[in-house]
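Entry 14. Structure prediction run on the chain below.
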Amino acid sequence: MNDESPAKQKWQKAIGALWPAAKGSLAKVYKPCIRKNCPACARGDKHRAWLLSFASQGRRKVMYVPLALVPQIRRAIQNGRKIEKYLSRTGPDLIKQYRQTRKTDPNTQSNS
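Output returned:
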């Protein structure tokens, strides 16, 4: 298959437009803080926090996300999901492209 095919160029353009990208999930939680004598915690109120949950080396990890970074992380996760969809379609698309090329070019060699 041609490394510079229109399909490859289209794929690269689509993936390149999906930056930033991340895999994981974003959750808003309410937790008590660590400050002693916090009036909100004393009332039973909790503080809002954002957490990014992700896998690293087969283990689940969680990181606090600063409020200012929440929109960017949310967009990165959405982009990451779009990239996963592209990747899941790539294998079948490559096979279809190969079969189509083989029909039009009888000199194409088969590995089986």
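The mean pLDDT is 85.
Filed with the rest of this week's runs.
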